[in-house]
Design a protein that fits this description.
The chain has 27 helices and 14 strands. The chain is α+β, with helices and mostly antiparallel strands. The chain folds into 4 domains: 67 residues; 186 residues, Orthogonal Bundle (Penicillin binding protein transpeptidase fold), CATH 1.10.3810; 317 residues, DD-peptidase/beta-lactamase superfamily (Beta-lactamase, 3-Layer(aba) Sandwich); 98 residues, DD-peptidase/beta-lactamase superfamily (Beta-lactamase). It has a 5-stranded mixed beta sheet with strand order 2-1-3-9-10. Strand 13 and strand 14 form a beta hairpin. Helix 4 packs across helix 11. The N and C termini lie far apart (89 Å). The C terminus is likely disordered.
C-alpha cells in the first residue's frame, strides 16, 4: 500500500468518526431537549439556581463566622458563672467581689411582675417575639439614635446581652458583635425564654460589686428582690444600661432620672398605665447610704478572669483571693491617665489610654488601667485589647542581633534605600532621611525603620519569632514587617516581655493572683508554688548592651526625653503606628516595668504628631515618679547607678548609722520591708497631692505643639 492509499484510508476513518460523534450528539440533544424551557419558566429556573448558588456560598461564610462563637458555647458556661469571689489587695484588705453563686439566686417565679416588666420595657420589649436577634428593634434603635443625634437606645436584645455576659468581653469590635449574634441564636435554641430571663437576672452586674438582681436589691435597699416596690424596681432595672453610672449610692439624681425613664417605658409598652406609675414618680426610691469605697474595676475584672482560668474544673467556687494590686498606685495611675486625657486628649484626638505596671523581678502586677473611665466603659484595653506595638517591638529585634551575631552598641548597621525584604518590600524612614552606615545605638535612639529590617534580614525572622514565643508573645508573626511592629499584642503581655531588660535576660511571667483560699480557708493555689516559673531567655551580657542603647532613647536626641527620671536610671522605647493610630511608651527602672498606650477604640487616627514620646512618655514619667518612693531601687544591668540615687542612698545610710530605727521604715517598697510597714507609711493623701504637682511643665509643653513649635525629636 502506497502513501496515497494510506492517507485515503485515514481520511475515511476520520469521516466515519465525525459521523458517529454527530449521531451521538444528536441522540444526546434529543434526550435533553424535553427539559428545555423558555420565557418566564426559564427566568424562574435561572433565578432560583443563582439563589441556591449564592445561598450555598453564604452558608459557608456563615459557618466560618459562626465557628468561634460555637467554640465558646462548648465551654461549661453554667459553672463559669458559679464563682463567688472576694478579692483582697496585696496587704489583705478586702477591695471587692465578683461572681454569683447559683444556689443563692432567686427563681424567676419569685421575682415581682413589675420587675420583669420594667426590665423588658427598657431592655427588650419584643423579647418573647424574636429568636435572639431583633431586626425591628435594631432598626428602631438606629432611628431613635439618629433623631436624637447620639446613642440613647441600644439595639442589642436581652439574649444578646446575656450572650456577652456569659461568653464574651465588652470589647467594641465587629468580631465580638458577630460572635454575640451567633451565641444568641445558640442560647435561644438550648434554653427557654424563661430560662434566658432567669440567667439574665442572675448574672447581670448591678454596680457596687453586686452581681445578680437579688444582690443588687440587697446592696441598694437592704431587702430581697421579692420585697421591692415599683419605684425600687424601676431604679434597679435602670442599672442594666450603666451599673456604675446610675448607681444610686453614688449618683442618686442620675439614678432617679433613669428610673423615671424606665417608668415611662413601662407606660409606652402598655405594661402599666400612667396612673399606676404616678406614685412611683412622686416618691422615687432612696438607696441605703453606703460608703463610696474605691474599687479597682479594671484590675478586678482581669483578676476574676484569671481566677476562672486557674480554678477551672477544681470544684471550689466560693473563694477568697489575694491579689497583687497596690491601691495607692492604682488610684494614682487612674488619676494620671484621666488627667492626661482631659488636658490633652481632645487636642491630640485621643479618646482612650491604658497602662500596666509590674514589679520587674517578681512579676507582681501592681497597676492595671484599662481605659479612661471604668464607669463608662468596662472593656479592658490593657489586658483584652490588642494593638499594633509599632517600634516598641524593635528592642526584641536588636536584642536578637546582639545575642545571635554578637553585635553591640557600636556595631555598624546599614541605613539606605536598598534594604529590602525577600518579597521586595522596601521600608521607609520617617522624614525620608537615610544616614548610610551608622552605629547600632544611634539607629535605636532614632528608631530607624530601615535598620530594623536590615537586622531582621541578618538574624532571621524565625529566630526572632522563636524568642518572642519564649517570652509568651504569640500574636506577632514572622512576616516581613514584623520588625516594624505589625501584628498586635496586649499591653500586659508586652510589659511581661520587657521584664528581660531589668532582670538581665530572665523572663518573669506576670501574675495578679498571689493566693486563693476556698470557703474552708484552705490554700488551694499559691503563686510561688503553682504559678509559672521564671526562665532565662537571653544572656546578661547581651541585655547589658541593649540597656545601654535603650538608655539613649530617653536622653536628649532620643525619641522620648520626656520620660527620663531625675532620681534613678530608666530606659525604654517609643512606638507609633501608621497614621498615629497607636502611641506607646514601654519603659523600665530597676524596680518596675510599665507600659502606656494612647489611641482610639475605633482605630481612628490621632493627629499626625501623636508620637509615643509625647503623651505616653509624659504619662509614664508622671506615674513612675509616684511609684518610686525611696532610693532602694535595684541596679539595671549595663547601667551605672544614677548620681541622685547614689547621693540619696549615702544620706540614708548616714541617718541609719545615727539612728538604727530609721532603717525599719526608710525603704518604702524595698525588698526587705514588711508589707504592713509599707501600708502605714505610703498614705493615699501624700501620693494624691504629689500626683497633681509632678511634671506639670511637660503637660504645658504639650499645649504648644499646635502653635507650630517643635516639641521633642520625631520618631
Amino acid at each position: 500500500m502506497d502513501i496515497q492509499e494510506a492517507l485515503v484510508e485515514i481520511g475515511n476513518k476520520f469521516e466515519s468518526g465525525i459521523s458517529s460523534f454527530k449521531n451521538a450528539w444528536s441522540t444526546y440533544s434529543t434526550f435533553f431537549s424535553r427539559f428545555d424551557i423558555k420565557g418566564f419558566k426559564k427566568f424562574l429556573a435561572e433565578f432560583f439556581s443563582e439563589m441556591m448558588t449564592i445561598g450555598t456560598a453564604g452558608a459557608c461564610v456563615m459557618l466560618v463566622l459562626a465557628m468561634p462563637a460555637f467554640e465558646k458555647a462548648e465551654e461549661d458556661w453554667r459553672s463559669k458563672g458559679q464563682f463567688s469571689v472576694t478579692f483582697l489587695d496585696r496587704y489583705g484588705a478586702e477591695i471587692g467581689k465578683r461572681g454569683i453563686l447559683h444556689n443563692d439566686t432567686i427563681p424567676l417565679a419569685d421575682i415581682p411582675d413589675y420587675v420583669i416588666k420594667a426590665t423588658l420595657s427598657t431592655e427588650d420589649r419584643r423579647f418573647f417575639e424574636h429568636y435572639g436577634i431583633d431586626p425591628w428593634g435594631t432598626l428602631r434603635a438606629l432611628y431613635i439614635n439618629a433623631v436624637a443625634g447620639g446613642v440613647v437606645q441600644g439595639g442589642s436584645t436581652l439574649t444578646q446581652q446575656l450572650a456577652k455576659n456569659l461568653f464574651l468581653t465588652n470589647e467594641r469590635s465587629l468580631q465580638r458583635k458577630i460572635n454575640e449574634a451567633f451565641l444568641s441564636l445558640w442560647l435561644e435554641t438550648h434554653l427557654t425564654k424563661k430560662e434566658i430571663l432567669q440567667e439574665y437576672f442572675n448574672r447581670a452586674y448591678m454596680g457596687g460589686g453586686a452581681y445578680g438582681i437579688e444582690a443588687g436589691a440587697q446592696f441598694y435597699f437592704n431587702k430581697s428582690i421579692r420585697d421591692v416596690n415599683l419605684a425600687q424596681a424601676a431604679m434597679l432595672s435602670g442599672l442594666f444600661k450603666s451599673p456604675t453610672g446610675y448607681a444610686p449610692h453614688r449618683h442618686l439624681p442620675k439614678a432617679r432620672e433613669r428610673a423615671n425613664e424606665v417608668l415611662t417605658n413601662m407606660v409606652q409598652a402598655k405594661f402599666l398605665t400612667e396612673g399606676q406609675v404616678h406614685e412611683a414618680r412622686i416618691h422615687p426610691a432612696r438607696a441605703v447610704q453606703r460608703p463610696d469605697r474605691y474599687e479597682p474595676g479594671y484590675f478586678l475584672d482581669w483578676a476574676f478572669q484569671e481566677v476562672k482560668r486557674i480554678m477551672k474544673d477544681k470544684g471550689d467556687y466560693v473563694l477568697i483571693v489575694k491579689t497583687t494590686v497596690d491601691l495607692d498606685l492604682q488610684r494614682s495611675a487612674e488619676r494620671i491617665v484621666s488627667r492626661m486625657l482631659r488636658l490633652n486628649g481632645q487636642a491630640y484626638r485621643a479618646k482612650q489610654a491604658a497602662m500596666v505596671s509590674m514589679e520587674a523581678h517578681t512579676g507582681a502586677v501592681r497597676v492595671i488601667v484599662g481605659g479612661r473611665n471604668y464607669a463608662r466603659s468596662q472593656f479592658n484595653r490593657a489586658t483584652n485589647g490588642k494593638r499594633q506595638p509599632g517600634s516598641t517591638i524593635k528592642p526584641y529585634v536588636y536584642l536578637s542581633a546582639v545575642e545571635k551575631l554578637g553585635m553591640g552598641p557600636y556595631s555598624r548597621v546599614l541605613d539606605t534605600r536598598g534594604v529590602k525584604c525577600k518579597n521586595g518590600y522596601a521600608p521607609k524612614n520617617a522624614g525620608g532621611r537615610y544616614r548610610g552606615r551608622i552605629p547600632m545605638w544611634l539607629a535605636l535612639q532614632k528608631s530607624i525603620n530601615v535598620v530594623a529590617i536590615y537586622l531582621a534580614n541578618r538574624v532571621g525572622r524565625k529566630y526572632i519569632y522563636k524568642k518572642l514565643k519564649q517570652l509568651d508573645i504569640h500574636s506577632i508573626k514572622p512576616g516581613c514587617t514584623m520588625p516594624l511592629g505589625s501584628g498586635a499584642l496586649s499591653i500586659i503581655d508586652h510589659v511581661s516581655g520587657y521584664s528581660i531588660f531589668p532582670t538581665g535576660g530572665i523572663h518573669v511571667p506576670d501574675y495578679v493572683i498571689s493566693e486563693i483560699r476556698n470557703s474552708a480557708g484552705e490554700l488551694v493555689y499559691a503563686q510561688e508554688r503553682d504559678g509559672a516559673k521564671r526562665k532565662r531567655i537571653f544572656r546578661t551580657a547581651s541585655i547589658a548592651k541593649m540597656n545601654k542603647m535603650m538608655r539613649n532613647v530617653v536622653l536628649k536626641g532620643g525619641t522620648a526625653p520626656r520620660a527620663d527620671l531625675d532620681f534613678t536610671m530608666c530606659a525604654g522605647k517609643t512606638g507609633t503606628t501608621n497614621r498615629s493610630r497607636d502611641a506607646w511608651f514601654m519603659g523600665f527602672t530597676g524596680r518596675y516595668v510599665t507600659g502606656v498606650w494612647f489611641g482610639n477604640d475605633d482605630n481612628s487616627p490621632m493627629i499626625s504628631k501623636s508620637y509615643g514620646g509625647k503623651l505616653p512618655a509624659t504619662t509614664w514619667k508622671n506615674f513612675m515618679t509616684i511609684a518610686h518612693t525611696d532610693s532602694n531601687i535595684p541596679k539595671i544591668p549595663g547601667l551605672k547607678i544614677h548620681p541622685a540615687q547614689k547621693g540619696r542612698m549615702s544620706r540614708e545610710e548616714a541617718r541609719k548609722a545615727e539612728d538604727p530605727s530609721i532603717g525599719k521604715s526608710a525603704s518604702l517598697g524595698g525588698r526587705g520591708l514588711s508589707e504592713g510597714s509599707r501600708l502605714v507609711l505610703q498614705s493615699i493623701a501624700r501620693t494624691m497631692k504629689k500626683a497633681d504637682k509632678i511634671d506639670q511643665s511637660a503637660i504645658e509643653r504639650d499645649k504648644y505643639v499646635f502653635k507650630g513649635k517643635s516639641v521633642g525629636p520625631r520618631e
